[in-house]
Amino acid sequence: MAACTRAATMNSLFGVVAPGPKDLWSLFFRILPKLLGLPASLMKKFRKGKNFHLALAELETSVGTLQELPQEVLMDIFATLEICDLIRAGYVCSSWRSAYTCLRDLGKYKHSQTPCLLYTSRSAGKNVACLYSLVENRTYKLTLPGPPIRRSLLIGSSNGWLIYADKRSELHLVNPITGEQVSLPSVITIEQVKPITDGSGIIHKYKLSWYSGHVHEDGTPMRYALDKLREYLYFKAFVFLDPCTRSYFVVLIHHPRFQLSFARLGDDKWTWLPQNTEYRDCMYMDGLLYALTAHGEINAFDLTASTVTMKVIVNKIESYPSALKSWYIICAPWGGLLQVWRTFSVPEQKDEDEDGDPCFHTTKITIYEVDLKAKDLVETKSLSNHILFLGHNNSLCLSADEYPRLKANHAYYTDDRSEPPVALKSVPRDIGVLDLENSSRKKVASQIWSNWPCPTWITPNLTKMNLAFSK
């Protein structure tokens, strides 16, 4: 069953099992000629659009020659491709398929992927996710295993994995490229959630307490239907790989008051981190979990210790969190940490305009470098040759040299406001590209997405988790 699901996913992603002439042309014209030194004269024929059939015959001759390359050489070539082109190349012939499969299964695929926008569409179907490629300016469709993604709540995207809550508010991971799926520990193992059962012992509601570990902070617990709890409990989630143990763990930001819980591979329950509240973003670096609050405070957790400890890296910057900001913590490519503040504005006309623009607009992004010695922030005016990706994804700062198709000194963002998702179902999402120099905004594409679940950035990844969280 799992193999069939993966095959269906790949077929849906690329439309056909074997690429046709135009697909071959696209694949070779854009990537392989540069890698393999195919003649420039051949490429000119394609660029001019003349003698297509003659050029195609020459191309097919080149393909025949390339099919005879040793598998090791093919694997070296394939490892430099974007995943969309890699999987498409795997359908060209049996030898290429073998090289692709070996590359994937051995975990030797290391090419840095360009983030794509993952979204749903009413016309695509309840189990179909759409992947918009910033490199190709085109959309691919992926058929995902259940539960239906259009009925799920997406709360995170990290390392190629989506984290989402189903209609019973239970959490799952899914890799939309490989089709691999993992169930996370039950929602009733989160500290503040308790099940409410009927006379036969079946859970029919949840009770959410307001307890956050602080003194004098205990309100009346709220009761929610199975499918409603997720909208009031979850904010963001992250999947991190610990390089030392080669195992995964998931970090969850949840209510009440944006607290932290985490689960390691093999855990049967969530572990609560009660030291602080108002967290908005997390990252993992050098064996430590860094968590950023809406006050600008950065805490570091050593999750490998028998007793988890917390250290304050940067003290509070703001006394009260603003409802019109989002906060991010990012590992800088040149080393160290970045703290990013994203500011929203509310237009005078609060309803959407004729272009479907959202009620809230991202108007400014402020970037700070973290001075670990002084425990302070130093504002930087420009990222020069770097790019930000912000939203419900793990926050990213990428080098423009490695991603030449993207806009340097720009931020690509999706909507990740902290209001309960139920309040945003019918509101156009704040998605776009912001010039960090002059704060001008552009659209990623014309609105091709549905508002629910909220679109998110995802970095495609062929690596398999192989193991699952055991229950």
UniProtKB/TrEMBL annotation:
Pfam families: Beta-prop_KIB1-4, F-box-like
Family annotation (CDD domains): F-box_SF
UniProt domain F-box: residue ranges: 63-98
Parts of the chain that traverse the membrane: none
PANTHER family from the UniProt entry: F-BOX DOMAIN CONTAINING PROTEIN, EXPRESSED, F-BOX DOMAIN-CONTAINING PROTEIN
Name used for this protein in its record: F-box domain-containing protein
Upper lineage: Eukaryota, Viridiplantae, Streptophyta, Embryophyta, Tracheophyta
